[in-house]
Amino acid sequence: MLRLSDYDYHLPKELIANAPASPRDSARLFVYDTKTDTVILDAFKNIEKHLPRPALLVFNDTKVVPARLWLTKETGGKIEVLLLMNEYNPNDPLIKGIADRKLLPGMTLFFRSGAELSVVKQEEQFFFFRPSVSVPMLWKLLDQEGRTPIPPYIKHTKLSERMLRERYQSVFARARASVAAPTASLHFTKKLIARLTKDGIAHAEITLHVGLGTFAPIDEKNIAEKKLFSEHFEVTQKSAEAINRAKISGVPVIPVGTTAMRTLESAARKNAILPGARTTNIFIYPPHEFQIADGLITNFHVPKSSLMLLVDAFLKHKKTKRDILALYSIAIKEKFRFYSFGDGMFIR
């Protein structure tokens, strides 16, 4: 029986990365060869040495929205609000969000520009707001007044908002809606991708808008129901065809990040990718039979998180001699940097 306590570990605080590596591909790389049970320590810029040829990398092209706001109440007090644009529905006039203190229906919050957010209702910890401006204008306000949300476990970062907007995005970031970046992608530079492409390692792009659930604690109820937080994803016809061609041809498919892996598993039908836009609440944990992925590029995750369980499920699917805690203990001993701004891992 799966126990969350089996996914707990102690991480020294100094190993929590507070800023991404600069340049991006100067991060370290932890390679685990599942066939030989071999661990290789390298720099991420050398990942091409460890990738098969040919291969197809799958990137998540979502973009983080600067949706963290400091608004003013009618009393003059300040309040922090995070708008969850990943859950925006064009058919619904209300915008979902969270706040750092209690709000009541009927209250009005003000942007610096004078635009307003009216509190309409509350459901559990979530508030629903009606903006006084159109949605296109709201996007502009977020660009002008919003801040980039960063994971709650990163307490101190010296990065300015300008630097965060640049460095807490992948070079593929296009479809904006996420509250967090697909962090495994942060290690890739345009030059590295060009070099990989020239060397026979192609790439395809999918979209999964990362929501607050990626940081939410999980419990035995999630495991019993086999359900997790919902996220919207899309796989285009072009990307689906590229992935399916790779599978038919025996070309290894390697998702970059747990969000890309979650998308592939959610879009898979009988070991092929079905294109389209849908919502997924899939919870991937051991045991799980993966349909598409042959490898995985990821980061080092928070203890007892759904992301950690997904990675361990992939290890068990590959019938490895070591589980995720055994690999993490090596990474900690070797002083790898952990979490969203940390170093990378490649399971092949």
From TrEMBL:
Gene symbol of the encoding locus: queA
Segments forming a coiled coil: none
Keywords, ordered alphabetically: Cytoplasm, Isomerase, Queuosine biosynthesis, S-adenosyl-L-methionine, Transferase
Superkingdom as given in the UniProt entry: Bacteria
GO biological process, any: tRNA queuosine(34) biosynthetic process
Protein's organism: Candidatus Lloydbacteria bacterium RIFCSPLOWO2_01_FULL_50_20
UniProt-recorded Gene Ontology molecular function terms: S-adenosylmethionine:tRNA ribosyltransferase-isomerase activity
The protein's name: S-adenosylmethionine:tRNA ribosyltransferase-isomerase
EC number: 2.4.99.17
Pathway(s) per entry: tRNA modification; tRNA-queuosine biosynthesis
Described function: Transfers and isomerizes the ribose moiety from AdoMet to the 7-aminomethyl group of 7-deazaguanine (preQ1-tRNA) to give epoxyqueuosine (oQ-tRNA).
Entries under HAMAP family matching the protein: QueA
Gene Ontology CC annotations of this record: cytoplasm
Family per record: Belongs to the QueA family.
Pfam families for this protein: Queuosine_synth
InterPro entries in UniProt: QueA (IPR003699), QueA_dom1 (IPR042118), QueA_dom2 (IPR042119), QueA_sf (IPR036100)
Subunit comment: Monomer.
